[in-house]
Amino acid sequence: MRSLSGKLAGPALLLLICVGFYWKLTLTSQYTWLDSPDIANMDAPRLQFIATQLRHGHFPLWDPHHWMGQPFLGQFTGVAYPVNWLLALTPFNKAGKLTSSVFNWYFVIIRCMGALFCYLLCRSLARSRAAAIIAAIVFVLGGMIGSTDWPEVINGAIWMPLVFLFLLRALRGEKPWASAALSGVFLGIPWLAGHHEVPIYISFTVAGVWIYAAIDARRDALRVMKLAATALLFAVLVSAFQTLPGYEFGKLAMRWAGVEQPLGWKQAVPYLVHAEYSSSPAAFLGIVFAGLNRHVDPYIGIIALALAASGTVLGWKRRDVRIFAIVSLVALLFSIGHYNQWHGLLYAVLPLFGVARIPARMLAVFGFSVAVLAAFGLDLIREHLNSRWVQRMIIVLASAGAAIFVITFSFAMAARFNPDQSHVITAVAALLFAAVLAGWRRGAVSPGAALLVIPLLIVVELGNGGMAFASRYDKTRGGWVSRLHQNQDIIRFLRQQNEPVRVHYDDREISINLGDWEDIDTQGGFTAAVTRNLVLEEGHTKRTRDLFAINFTIAKTPTQPNQEVAWPAESGLNVYRNKDAFPRAWAAHNVMAFASREELIPKIQDPAINLRQTVLMTGKPPTLETCDPAADQVTYLGATANSVSLTAALGCRGIVVLADTWFPGWRATVDGRPTPVLETYGALRGIVVEKGTHRIEYRYRPATAIAGAAMSLLGLLGAVALVIRGR
Fold this sequence. Notes:
This protein is α+β, with helices and mostly antiparallel strands and 727 residues long. It contains 28 helices and 22 strands. The two termini are 23 Å apart.
């Protein structure tokens, strides 16, 4: 029992530190991390959609609410990440939304997970509890993780410690095959988290470590490469639930990547974008001084940096230390992107590397490596307390602290402004850390007291940087969170309609993703990519919007002819009814076939073509029958995230068109019998239906998701089998 309590003491203390560090989110209701455009407009609605659908018993492979429906899993949305599934079990408020408290605790818990993983890594490296706690603190409270709000990015980064824990175990020969498999499993999990950049950087880093280990092993290089291949196999398997659908979506989508025009599958992200989102050499100062950064904050503080330097110098003969030191240096150099020619070379020769368009996020790998080196540093300082290195470090820290004080206050007095308080904190931290080390060295400070004070100083120093959470009492902030709860009278009106609703709205007036947040179908939405068939359509024209069944528009003034005010909103916006909009589903008995999409798309705008009666498509047209269209009746019964139900009563053989996006993976049945799904009008779904009354069911069952789920499950079970066999 005493042994168990000792093992739990470190993780329990870390939990308390994380909860206490983020007291604004965990212990009050005054602050939020959601108050930024991307988070409020996209991430919060996305998490809400996941939680809502799972609570209703639907795993959302498809998002029916944005852009006439889009693959949800394929867009790297985080729905494949099991941690996000737990949101469905949390309390919803009276409006059926995740509460601000749930969002805040979600923010903290994922960082607690990262802290625990880093602690376990350091304990596996035979580091002391105090050293492991310091590493965990630096990893999650400092650097990119401590300053980044995007949960999908953080969810990918926090698994780095477990990847390296088992990678290093495999290299040490500790159950090597099971360890290599588990390293691959934990490399695959970040790919499920909802963003590709950090997983790409982790994957290249891990590949580099395996190559380094193979070279270092010399005669045993073949065995190391076999272990690396095992890890790669399990990473591919576990990540497949996300990467296979993502690959399918990527080939058929256009993405916005920082340039004016969207990019297709074979178009590389221009290096101009990589250059824009690079960190800079000048931002290296931001490692020690809070606020000096470009795109991503590298701030870990002077104490953590001093500990990491100590670990590197005093432990260089250890392979683990060399690995983390080299990784930290390489990551730092690659974070500056276009300032480093090697970055451009990898961009040119490795297509996957070029997909990660924000080189500054390589600082996630840097922060992780430095955190582990800091753990080595603390333990090695204890072992070499009377060494010249420690003596020199005390002098350097004291001198640096004094110099920062003098320079800061000199500039302040000369320019007559208040000194930068963050720089003052850095100076105080340097001086206090030097004093603790000097006292410890001379015996005036006990080892226990030193090991207690040093983590506390690090927490204080890291509190100097990180995110500035928005207070609900601060009227000067962006007010992005409040926009989630605006226009409720419009939402109520739309929900009261007795017809399927699809809305177009100006994102300058309403910026949030109404679809995911309010479960209302919309023409557009805040996203990074959209299926190519919709991007090519002229979605701004009246004919296209009518074709897409956009029956309501939210705007201050009419946006197209033949609109009437259906609801004057309290905000000054109006809800306009588009009187010419097509129904969500209808039948047609004429078809025009074209050789290519390029020929078809312009015809949608041709006023001589009655789009309600004539279906436009490419390829060989089906054989239809001509009869009175007044005899047709198509009824839209309803939809879930992955299904649509219709009834159709046709006077003769025709095509029933559903004004939802066509995409591979949609299966249709008529009275239970499968029927092919046609791509009509270049973007919509259609099926051939015979004369009579029929029940039509659409189901989204993409082969990539099914195969990916099977591969991920196989990877997990295979790793468990290897672990059991190893025991």
